[in-house]
Amino acid sequence: MSDSDAAETKPATLQGMVTTLVTGGLVAFIMIGIFLIIRKGARRYYAPRTYLGTIPEKERTPALPNGIFNWFGSFWKIPDAHALRTQSLDGYLFLRFLRICTTICFVGLCMTWPTLFPINATGGGNAEQLDILSISNINIQDSANRNRLFGHVLVAWIFYGFVLYMIMRECIFYIYLRQAFLLTPQVARRISSRTVLFTSVPQAYLNVDKIRLMFKETAKHIWITGDTDDLDKLVEERTKVAMKLEAAEVKLLKLANANRVKSKDGSSETSKQQSPPQELESGDLAARWVPKDKRPTHRLGLLGLVGEKVDTIEWSREKLSTLTPEIEEAQAKYLAGESKPIPAVFVEFYTQSDAQSAVQSLTHHDPLQMSPRYIGVSPEEVIWKSLRVPWWQKIVRRYIVLAFLTAMIIFWAIPVAFVASISQVDTLRAKWSWLSFLDKVPEVVMGFITGLLPAVALSILMSLVPVVIRLCARFAGEPTDSQVELFTQAVYFAFQVVQVFLVTTISGSVFSVLGTFAKEGPGKVFETLSAAIPKSSNFYISFFIVQGITIASSVLTQVAGYVIFRLTYKFLARTPRAMYNKWTTLSAISWGQVLPIYTNIAVISITYSVIAPLMLFWSTIGMALFYLAYRYNILFVNDSGIDTRGLIYPRAMKQLLVGVYLAEICMVGMCAVSKAFWPMIVMIVFLVFTVFFHITVQSALNPLLYNLPRSLEVEEESLMEHGEADDAIEEDATAGEGSTSAGGKNVKASASAPPKGNFLTKFFKPWKYSSYAQLRKLIPRHQYGPGETLEEATEANSYNPPSVNDRPPLLWIPQDVAGLSKHEIANTEGVIPITDEGCTLDDKNKIIWDEIEARPPIWEEKPHY
């Protein structure tokens, strides 16, 4: 940039950063203050995992002290591994990923700041404010200053090499941890661990005898999936009618109870609400308190707005009396094998080892037949409609989805580029005269416009994408919710990298280059480009502040969510079932939507680590705050939700390689536009090394990332002989939480246990100090408790479609003083099960039930598939 240009405008980087920091900090301070005050009194929302009756005792988290600040120490003492024991492998690995990313950013900060800040600050350029700390302050016109890029290249070698090692190290850690997790008795004996789903099965093999002949005595149960379209519709209709009946019964009881209370109070309006004598003589107890014209009704036409008006209770009873026999007949036909088979087969094996052998072997001689195969599939996560898709449709659908998502990425770049250009307004107004009106805008306002506004706008834009991606995954034929989540993780990460990083960076730089080209011709383009790319980091400083301070605070406090929860529970949950569902349903983290956001932040941090090292400070702070926020939520608030059995972790770690590649390419490009030939050659050498490293590590580790090797059976028997199988592990605050090892105290020493190593040996030898033998101690190997083993009848029907196993729901209504609930039960129980136990109506017409125990008649212990 010329001196005249520099005089025309002052860089807004410092003003933008301060404005964003102050605004975001103020919002975060208010939200955290509210959280600290209401946390004690809002235990259901902020600590349900400590007491809620629907959560088994062994899956609960110890309660924290109730003070405003005195709970910090107790919170920190609970190890991350507690999530591994009480929730899922995904939850634990998600926390570990955030810690690893924080470590990478912090180590990068320690490497780059002492070396690159002095080099950049004395680089001879004319940058100002925060820009003097980036590579853009190197005066590329001076050959002596160009040689300073050797310092950047050297730091890049060291830091990028560290990132590569961390990726490899964590993949090794994951391999051993997943093996230890899957081989614990409580996981290995689950039916999902012993069942393989075969898709695209040819018609000739949709036969139990042929499948059994293929796997011989290793197969225990075989389910040939059939078409259940008609049955699904019947079951869906029955459920809808049953819930309509339940809501109408509750409404009737509330009307009668309100009139009874008014009658007891001597209200003059009571006589108007009572039924006429002819209705009382009918013997209907409800008629005493609710006139016939006040009973719940609905219309049979479109959306209940038009058509014949009917009594809801009487109509629902009659409808259910015809639906249930039809459903039972259709279910019997399915179980008799009379349904049309679809190309999917579930095979349960006697052991997990046999199931692993089946999923790893070629099961059919024709291509694309009986594949892909999946193991660890819970019946609850199967997308049954996807099983109907034949192999050729899957290919076509995938290409359609690929084309659609590609077009979406291209067109989504338009609003993203516009948002990115806002962050470069201060630079653009110096180059485009028609933006001169912005010179009159106060600096504080400009700081808000260029700092906070684009960061918030970009976050909102990107939040709309995962919903579309999930729909695309289902259309493409992904057979399970976990596969949909992994598909979403992969595509949304690509979307994040392209839109949040590449489009944002390139668009800001392009606008600057076009301005220079229009004003000074092509001679200054390379100089402008070398300065513009580092300056794009100013946007990410604001973006990381917004993400790390404001959004991390909202993740922890969830103030808006708390208000919505209280309002919906109080005013919209009008039946006991609705209250129970709202009270006991915990929010779950969508891994495919959440994880790519932080993977992309890590990628951006790695890419800009050498070009603009200042950014690493804010990414370190942001990642650390996100870790603390999600740590609290996973331990105390969230449920496990969709379980990928840890497969989100290696995918996220390997996605960090994108950051390394982009960083190396950017460094090569920066050296090229700076005309620094030898630094460019040195950087190209490391880029080639990275490619070979990537190929070698991937070929060595990939098979172990997704499969269980046979040798583990021998390893397990050896460890059993040394008496380690039943070691009780009680981990303290630090055990298993370092980046180098996992383990616990009170563990018996064994002959196979490795000697204790120091920090360096543990860090550089994960295959020894984080081996299968060591990490298996991290996971409790408890015996089966009630509900953890399936009854034979339940197991035999586990992989039938849900509509085949569906039974009429138990209706739950409140008990009233007048005894009307008993009367309604007597009239309804011949059609559908119904009860009034565990719930009452008080004189204020409020529904009262046990929110602490939270195990009403409709509660069922969740089977451990």
From TrEMBL:
Cellular localization per UniProt: Membrane
Annotated ranges, domain CSC1/OSCA1-like N-terminal transmembrane: 17-170
Coiled coil (residue ranges): none
InterPro entries: Csc1-like, CSC1/OSCA1-like_7TM, CSC1/OSCA1-like_cyt, CSC1/OSCA1-like_N, PHM7_ext
Polar residues: compositionally biased ranges: 268-277
Region Disordered, residue ranges: 261-286, 732-752
Pfam families on file: PHM7_cyt, PHM7_ext, RSN1_7TM, RSN1_TM
Domain 10TM putative phosphate transporter extracellular tail, chain residue ranges per copy: 763-857
Ranges annotated as spanning the membrane: 12-38, 93-116, 149-168, 399-424, 444-469, 490-518, 538-565, 586-604, 610-630, 676-697
Keyword Membrane: yes
Domain of life: Eukaryota
Keywords: Membrane, Transmembrane, Transmembrane helix, Transport
Residue ranges occupied by any CSC1/OSCA1-like cytosolic domain in the UniProt entry: 193-385
Membrane protein topology class: Multi-pass membrane protein
Primary location: membrane
GO cellular component: plasma membrane
Molecular-function GO terms, alphabetical: calcium-activated cation channel activity
Compositionally skewed regions (Low complexity) per UniProt: 735-744
Signal peptide segment: none
CSC1/OSCA1-like 7TM region domain location: 397-670
PANTHER family linked to this entry: DOMAIN PROTEIN, PUTATIVE (AFU_ORTHOLOGUE AFUA_5G10920)-RELATED, PROBABLE MEMBRANE PROTEIN DUF221-RELATED
Family the entry assigns: Belongs to the CSC1 (TC 1.A.17) family.
Designated name of the protein: Duf221 domain-containing protein
Organism whose genome encodes this protein: Pseudallescheria apiosperma
Highest classification ranks of the organism: Eukaryota, Fungi, Dikarya, Ascomycota, Pezizomycotina
